[in-house]
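Pasting as-is:
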Amino acid sequence: MITLAFIGLVGGLITGVSPCVLPMLPIIFFAGTAGKTEPASKTASAGGGVLLDEPAVKKARDFRPLKIIAGIVVSFSLFTLTGSVILSALGLPDDFLRWGGLTILTLVGLGLIFPALGHWIEKPFYRLPKINRNNNGAFVLGLGLGTLYVPCAGPVLAAITVAGATGNVGWRTVVLTVSFALGAALPLLIFASAGSRISQRVKAYRDHARGFRIGGGVVMILLAIALAFNITDVIQRSLPSYTSGLEKKVAENKTVQGVLAPALGQGGQDLAKCTPGAAELASCGAAPEFTGTQKWFNTPGGKPASIGGLKGKVVLVDFWAYSCINCQRATPHLLAWDKAYRSLGLEIVGIHSPEFAFEKSAGNLESAIRKEGIAYPVGQDNNLATWTQYRNQYWPAKYLVDAGGTVRSIKFGEGGYGQTEDQIRQLLKDANPEVQLPAPVDGTVKAPSIGGAGTTPETYLAYSRSANLRGTGKLTPGKTVAFGLNSAQPDDTYSLGGNWKVGTQSVASTTGSTARLNYNAAKVYHVLSGEGTVTVSIPGEPDKTIKVSGTPNAYQLVDKPAQERKTMTLTYSPGISAFTFSFG
């Protein structure tokens, strides 16, 4: 448990100084300046409450910074682990908590400007005898900030998120979550304490405390607006990821892999013995069984495949999702290996673990399997049960199992195909020294390349996950909204034009529906469904019309030999659902 808590704390500390937390710092600083400098009985004022009391010269211990951080730790831990369950039970949208946090932040900012409102915010907490009345609003603010605190995703946070999403929350996950939250909050505590000390010790602040508080309230409200419209993303993207090196070391550390993985399930503890991406084969324990699947494809009679039933064969377990562009880029390599080595003892088993709700449809998955020409067995893992047993955290991910049923290699993400093929060939030789292997096939595979540095990140269009919308009109779920295109589309953003019916995972075209996308990539893909056409217009190039038919799938819009910064405009016929843009 100590090791688990230490890893969580270190992961949190790295996150706490990453570019992702920068929007929180002004909020925390000004919140720290809003505390008292002497007991409330000696600083009574017209409005009462912590957000009104004027500081006196006499210094008093200020617990406001600690209460803010305590609120962040409590709400971040609680809602990260149980938020999806709570929202689902209440029938609330996925981002309800985020908007709740923005509302609290706005109210606290207004409370700094209007003391009577600050008193009203804190009034309910006066009935709680065990909470010190001084600065109770600080804890409320911390609760709100905890729902807005979306740190950079590293291996620790990925383990926590998947555990919460799958409902597999035990004491290990709780320890990891709380220690991560504490580590991430410690740098914030420094800023809150700095604000508190300035308010107490700097004479200029004491002389103009009211003005500083009004200024702090304005800053909080402006930052709430910036967070609501993702304006802060521009600043974060413009800064170098100075913590990425540390995060990579944590992710690839053997001890970390071994400790984090058990937080995701009860089987396959020995998988931590494999270092993901290692060139040398290792012995990582017995491969966990496929469990909790809903349906199987490409098996005799639709019966489930099993690790036990595949003993004697080399097995490659591939975790994927059919609309995931990273997975689609890997599929040609899997197909080539299946064709070259199946008759020689290789069995590829695809475990389809969905990212979107539409990917849970057996019909959609069957269409994707047929379209891709996949002939090896595929199991439908809608509840991430097998994903959890394998301690997986990535799309795509490959687990290589030898003929005796032992996991020998783990590979997360794209790339390294030549190395994986070499390992397959070695295990086939180990299983049957007499086998005659053909020449390696990886060099002959024609597959989309992986995006290079600066490639535009995957862009979601729907209400629940959209982050890069820069145009007029607001994504309002369940309604048809009139949008306006951005005439000067900022880098790596999109805008919508005309009328769109907004859903939680897609937007559906109606009349005059258009979109504009600014991207930096060699290849652009668009996940679409329905019946109709999409016309792609790029300045200086002939228009291109894409025919859309059937269930959601990725359609390639651009295929260039090198990365380019371009802006495209798309025109949609009515009845098309658009999910994401992906880039390579």
